[in-house]
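User: I'll paste a sequence; please echo it back and then give the predicted structure.

Assistant: Echoing your sequence first, then the prediction.
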Amino acid sequence: MKKTKINAYILLVALVMVALVIPVSAANSSLRAQSYYNGNLIDEREIGPGHPPLIWQANANLPDLTDKSMQVLNGASVPALDWSYGCSATSASMYFGYFDRNGYPNIYTGPTNGGLFPLTNAVWGTGECPLSASHKGIDSRTVNGSVDDYWYGYGSSIDPYYGHWVEHSQDSVGDFMGTSQYYHWQNIDGGTTFFFSTNGAPLNDYTGSEGTTPSKRDGVHGMKLFAESRGYSVTSDYNQYIYGYNGNTQGFTFNQYKAEIDAGYPVLIQLEGHTMLGIGYSGTDQVIVHDTWDYANHTMTWGGTYAGMQHFGVTVFHLSPSQTPASSITVTSPNGGETWQRGTTHTVTWSYTGSPGSTVKIVLLKSGTDAGTISASTSIGSGGTGSYSWPMSAAAGMTTGSDFKVSVQSISLPTVNDTSDNYFTITAATTQAPAAITVTSPNGGETWQRGTTQTISWSYTGSPGSTVKIVLLKSGTEVGTISASTSIGSGGTGSYSWPMSAAAGMTTGSDFKVSVQSISLPTVNDTSNNYFTINPQ
């Protein structure tokens, strides 16, 4: 008897403390498994991928704009996105995009729309949203992202990166939620997992299945991880069945939903197979949603169906009151001690933290006074660093000295700026001799015989180009081309070996000169100073 009691106790502890997976009926489309966690029965649901069913109509279920009971979050601030690689990640991105536009500027950090998350994802093309799922080639991204590493095809369980290359560092909402990640979290392409307590109570920040085999991530916990990656803290994140679902008496009510909207919080609406974003309400039971399939507002009945899919739960998420992560810019070069010469090109570099905006202005300072704008607007950079290639003018009158600094300043947040720690030096451009060519031979008085080979030579200064043309003149008139193109030479001198034809009829006389002319700069040329003689063979 004593042994039996001990075994029963062990079994009870196992049920209370360990996630015990229980098979479920296939009739419930999103319910994947059940398990016990801390004594409570937990439902595991995979939501998505989330393309619209055939019965969905784009212009159906539109809200009545004359309904005085209607309350909607600021319509100018709530993004409406079409589906981007998973309905849950898309809905969460609308949630985060709303807060990016309302005091949480470090959520979207890309270059589009001046760094402010846009109201639709049309700018990136149908089905693309870098906040939901990063993608190489979208939003100026030059490396692999979520789509490249995890997406193979709608509903697929293949992760393309696995066994082939190193996956990217997580950066999008879907990355943190586990969307489309089969190897890590058993989610098919477009799918995201959410966990719910069967008794209807809120399931707060659930992580009980992350250490199991296979591991599973709760999407709302992933939302929390994303927010934290952007420098924000979270006060509440939970999934909850709605009141009355499967007979529960502790579920989330329509009045609680209204309270969330009134407090300024969108709510993720969970359906069998789909996630939407609740942004308002009207009457006694109408929910106003963005459904991830177009850019319009739609309505559904609380606890009813939408496009044939049953409403069963919500995901509630609260960011802490905005404390914008500190933004800063730090000039790294020139930062003191450098010597840069006018007429050359140098790179101004800086690092940055937080979200100082997408563009900066770069100014040259001399003894602390503005001495000119280097760039009125250039990109902040990416990954915390930025740079600008500065062609330093060599024009006459440009300032030189040993008392220069540069200032890099955010255009959208002018108080975020930095200046070189110490002075650097700017020296004058090297004075270069003007381009010139001087014929040195034949230069007058020489006698050359046809049938022999003679050397024409010249000197040059500056940069007259890489090639020259050599012409024979008789009494100042061109009588033939000696070389249509030959090298200018090197080190300031050049030469050409001229095999002088002895063919019958070739001109002879004592009134010849040669002309050497730059091909790229025809006005740069020279002619023998005096006549030389050409005798027959």
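The two ends are 134 Å apart (CA to CA). The first helix runs from residue 2 to 17.
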